[in-house]
Amino acid sequence: DAVDKLNGSVELYLIGSGVLLDKKYKNRLSKYHILGTMAHDDVLKEMAKSDILVLPTLSDGFGMVVTEAMSTGTPVIASGNSCGSDIIINERNGWLIPIQSDEAICKILNKVTQDLSIIQKYGNAALRTAKINSWIKYEDHIVRKLTDCINLIRNDISKV
């Protein structure tokens, strides 16, 4: 919907098979680039070629696509219903939007098309963010949280 409102000032590339299932958009999809399902390496190459990744997901526990895009220097527009709020610093290395807000997406894309230097600036910040949020750091964080939970359970059990 946001891309439609921009009247051709941006191009939309859709990756994945799910986009073909939504009958609501079936008639409109012909004017976009539907890339379908791709190998992971090819997805990363497409991300690197893109100016911005948009992930307006309704629900996604930890959207790896966000960190993957950032690791290619591609800033992300994401809803708070993904890992976006854990990684994206709004208006610095990407954008956080409310769910189901094509208006918010449209506003950001409109602003970026008026000043293309934003893409480079945010992309560089996204890349720096991705470098400090490595898989090892994420794994360490998960292990610490699980260890804390196990210790709390042990303490509760010892009191019984």
Task: Characterize this entry briefly.
The protein is mainly alpha-helical and 160 residues long. The protein has helices at 2-5, 40-49, 64-71, 84-87, 102-114, 117-132, 135-158, and strands at 13-15, 33-36, 53-55, 76-79, 94-97. Strand 3 (53-55), helix 3 (64-71) and strand 4 (76-79) form a beta-alpha-beta unit.
Quick tags:
three-stranded parallel beta sheet, mainly alpha, 160 residues, two-stranded parallel ribbon, single chain
Sheet/helix structural class: mainly alpha
Please tell me the overall pLDDT: 86
- How far apart are the first and last residues' alpha carbons, in Å? 57 Å
- What is the H-and-E element order? HEEHEHEHEHHH
Beta-strand percent range: 5-15%
In percent, how helical is the residue content? Answer: 40-55%
Give an account of the 3D structure.
By secondary structure, the chain is mainly α. Helices cover 49% and strands 11% of the residues. It has seven helices and five strands; from the N terminus they run H-E-E-H-E-H-E-H-E-H-H-H. The protein has helices at 2-5, 40-49, 64-71, 84-87, 102-114, 117-132, 135-158, and strands at 13-15, 33-36, 53-55, 76-79, 94-97. The strands form two sheets. It has a three-stranded parallel sheet, sandwiched between helices. A two-stranded parallel ribbon has the order 1-2. Helix 4 links the parallel strand 4 (76-79) and strand 5 (94-97). It is elongated, with a radius of gyration of 18 Å. The termini are far apart.
